[in-house]
């Protein structure tokens, strides 16, 4: 049997203990998982550029909610394949640190004001939420 010196043994125990406390990204706790909130709007008057511009203006204001880490406002791209849905008018994609931050966004006064001020513009909204794996 090989003899291990006390100093080497203690060093190995310290390294093993340190590694045991490291959390790898794939082991993220649920509250640490990034959260994406992607909203698609169908305008009541899809050919009305003023309505689309007004909605985009409202989304720009909505982007001031402090829990939003990144946002993207978009319109259908010119791509055309059988799997692409281009029927929506405007998309709104948000990135949050976690689900709890998205829930703050949902009840934030800026978000509630956005709904009150701009909901008359759309006839349909579809939301796709996803959490990081």
Describe the structure in your own words.
The chain is an alpha+beta fold. The chain has one domain (27-131): 2-Layer Sandwich (Alpha-Beta Plaits), CATH 3.30.70. 37% of the residues lie in helices and 23% in strands. It is built from 4 helices and 4 strands. It has helices spanning 6-21, 49-62, 99-107, 109-118, and strands at residues 35-43, 70-74, 90-96, 122-131. Strands 2-3-1-4 form a 4-stranded antiparallel sheet. α2 (49-62) packs antiparallel against α4. It is globular, with a radius of gyration of 24 Å. The protein starts with 5 loop residues before the first helix and ends with a strand. The relative contact order is 0.24. Mean pLDDT is 87; it is low at 16-24. Residues 35-130 form the Stress-response A/B barrel domain. Keywords: Signal.
């Amino acid at each position: 049997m090989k003899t291990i010196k006390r100093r080497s043994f203690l060093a190995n125990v310290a390294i093993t203990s340190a590694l045991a406390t490291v959390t790898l990204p794939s082991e993220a706790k649920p509250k640490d998982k990034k959260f994406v909130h992607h909203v698609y709007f169908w305008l009541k008057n899809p050919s009305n550029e003023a309505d689309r511009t007004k909605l985009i203006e409202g989304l720009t204001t909505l982007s001031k909610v402090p829990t939003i880490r990144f946002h993207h406002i978009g319109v259908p791209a010119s791509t055309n394949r059988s799997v692409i849905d281009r029927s929506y008018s405007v998309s709104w994609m948000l990135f949050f640190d976690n689900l709890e931050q998205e829930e703050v966004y949902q009840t934030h006064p800026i978000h509630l004001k956005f709904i009150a001020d701009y909901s008359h513009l759309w006839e349909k909204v579809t939301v796709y939420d996803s959490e990081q794996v």
